[in-house]
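Dear support,

I submitted the protein below through the web form. The confirmation email said the job was done, but the results page showed an empty box. After a refresh the structure appeared. I'm attaching both so you can tell me whether what I see now is the final result or a partial one.
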Amino acid sequence: MLSPKNYQDYPAALRQLYQELDGAPQVFRGERDARPLIGLSANYNASGSCIARAYTESIIQAGGLPVLIPLTTDIEVLRRYATQIDGLLLSGGDDLLPAYLGEDPIPTLGEVNPERDRSELLLVAEAVRRNVPILGICRGHQLLATAFCGGMYQDIYAQLPNAQGHNPQIPKTLPAHQVCLQGDSVLARVLGLQDGDAIQVNSIHHQAVSRVPKSFRVTALAADGVIEAMEAYPEKSILSVQWHPEQMAYAGDVLQQKLFAHLVSEATLFAQAKAVHRSVIVLDSHVDTPMHFTPDFDLRQRGNTLVDLPKMEEGLVDVSVMVAYLPQRERDDDSLRQATSYAVDKLEAIRRLTFAHPDIATVATTVEEIRRAKELGLRVIVPAIENGYAIGKDISNVARFGEMGVCYITLCHNGDNDLCD
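What the results page shows now:
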């Protein structure tokens, strides 16, 4: 066993190593390591998944804990990584498969790795759905443009007239050209600069983003017009650059290290937000999903509604109050009976669709039931009614709806009924 009293029997180098280990600060049970977990998308070679040390060291120096996400096509594995990490760094590497751009390959397309493309595009989708902060570097910058349906040059020199040298024979730790910052961007603020300022960057690529996705904006340009940086703020904490800041940061460039400090800062905040979600009951008090129920609707399937069980899981929402919404119609006796019947049908559908998945969801009517469900890891659906029109003129319907688990009834919606205007 590794015990200090035995070290004297060990070779000097091994003894020194273990003594150094014993002298390092220890995290004890109950203490929380404040460093966020930063996932790195893996590069790939003949030996398997790998990553350059410059990436991991830049994250460590910024205060993060890097973890390599291996190349895999297992969606469930990628989903679990996206759930566990606090930030994501998309690393550099091979060209991207033009099929994901809706294009055929041109003759000068470089080497591609379709398996890596698929793996990383799936990883990005899962991370974005959870609002994980992302930093894209070189290929990662291009991957983000592809994932969000932007545009790409398969080969800058074949497709962009007057393109400058973007892959010169210059050591990758040294600047190759300058880029000009565009607008009041997060990138400029992170670097402590402003619109119009220029910085020196390295350059190791022959593909580039030709058009940013709709939800992004350009934040840096090269002299020949190549998009060197983009970001998705304020909608998403996503920033990407075409150059390789990890190589310059690893060589001591303080300015480039700020990009990793930004990622770790965003990831720290994200980790804190997740901790809040774990410690409290998060409740969405009004969800209109039942409006979209069809005979084949499935709450477990991710769909076009704003809320379903996958989105509750991704957003760390424990409880959704799903309402049986009634549009305001006529107020004659027959119409009122139809309104009540319609509400009952929707409430029964809410229960039926929820109880169809007892392994992940349940219906609750009390606070204690909600607390118990959270302990069990279940998402909770609570029924409600939007528009007191459902009551009609029969006050006994209030008790009837209560017995069906309804937690509230809004008095009216967008029209007058027999309860109020």
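Response: this is the final, complete result; the empty box was a page-load delay. The chain has two domains: 32-276, 280-410.
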